[in-house]
Amino acid sequence: MGSWGAGQPYHPKSAQSPLLRLLTGTSWRPALRAAVGPTVVLLLAALVAAIPSDYSLDRAFPTPEFGDRFLSTLATALNALGAPFRLGFQNPITRSRSENLDVTFWVVPMTVTVLWCLALWLGLRAGLRRRKADGSQLTRGQAAGEALRTAVVLGLVTAVLGLIAGTDWNPGNTDGGYYGEGPGLKPSFSTDSGWIWAVGWTLLVGGLLAFTVYGTDALRWAAWRNPSVRGWAVAALTAGQALALTVGLASLTAFVLVAANSDQGWETPLSLAFLPNLGLLLLGLGSGATVRSDTTRGAVPGWSDYRDSHREFSFFDLHGETADWRWTGLLALAAAGLLGWTAYRRRLDTADRLRLAAVYAVLLTALTAASGGLFSTSVSLRAPTSGSWGGGNNSPSTQDTSVGLAFLSVLVACAVWALVGALLVPALLAALGGRGAAVPYGAVPYAAAPYGTTPYGAYGPVPPEVPHPGGPGFAGPPAGPVPGPVPPGVPLQAPPYGPVPPEVPHPAGPVADAPVVGVSEVLGSHDGPPAPAAGTPQPGAAPRPPEEPVDPSVWRDHP
Length: 559
Fold this sequence. Notes:
By secondary structure, the protein is α+β, with helices and mostly antiparallel strands. It has 16 helices and eight strands.
């Protein structure tokens, strides 16, 4: 029957699907450890919001107990993962009539989101260090498996928090007024969270972040072997650094403005949860995007008609707003300057600066699109007959309000300012530094580049930690002279398989004996090249011939 009895080994795992092998291939403990930090962040955010005891509605009801407040604020904390928060209120007027109010808030408190991602990143880094303590490197399949398990654990934790979050609260009336008149008629409140949305975004964001951390070795090797991958990796890291500084500066500006202009004591503490949202709003306005507020109302039959309202203004047309809004243009100038200065320090050429502008514009557009808010309100009156007040039984009056920046205007503004910052500012800085048009920006000679780097800075050369395993397929160290410093004005010529500096050792021992570093050390270091290790071939050795392919064991034994 088939291969039975033919002497061929049988492997039960070969019959499993690739997804099942990724889930069951190794221990789940790293994923469980990585999920502790983000879970603590959500619980602490809910606890901080639940501590104030002055939650009330026009002093008509007593303050909810701490348990009800904590479960409600926990549902609010899940907004940081993209879940909507729902608040319901039902007020019985008589035994056959009642008012119903349903409010949905869909706003992402980005401060909590940033802290959640930071806690997850720290947990993943700690797990990666434990995983690589023996000197081994993770392959692409192993990194994908760790990322998948981490995403599944985070999704399950978010689902559990979403199921326990929310509460039903039936307060007693304190003043005996309009609310809850009559014996046995008490209003009720309910809070809930759309946790399914939170689970979906948790799986996506957590999985991508985990694969980015665990796949550093795979990214490092791919960047070494492929100049295009190296260029995009450099662009992503550079754009991330510039964007972090820009959003941090804009958030600090927003906090100062809120603290200086707030009239009530709760506004400043509340703004702490939405500082990146406010900072991105100011940055988008200063960049030329349009701030838009749309309100759509639904009419109640037999009651009255409502008109929709639409309001917008931009940096170029304030529509009656004060001219103080134009000071936000300084944020756009500062963002372009930070991006250009980062590209200038990296010594990126024109192609890499175009990649940098593209990545920066996409990331900033995505963040700005997520910083807006959506509020939906539905009011209805339940009555026994259609002749009752309100026009009928359960006839709702709805109102939807959205506040944020117009997406198309944000996309155009981000693209324009990214090109200005990535192309014009570095050229201006180079001209002011005295190197204007004498040397092409992408062809800085070795002798002129600081830190002793190539045009990629510390990104280009192969690090001395890159192992070259010995064995039958390895022909030994390359022979021949290594090109020396390039004369001024002569563009650099990179080898077909990526630049290999003289200081790269070629050990003949096992791969596990080589030190292991992450992609940040290879692609993001500003330090000079380390001293050659013992056994390093001298500059008199020739590079690998162009027609000779890279040793297949490098790609087979590593990511």
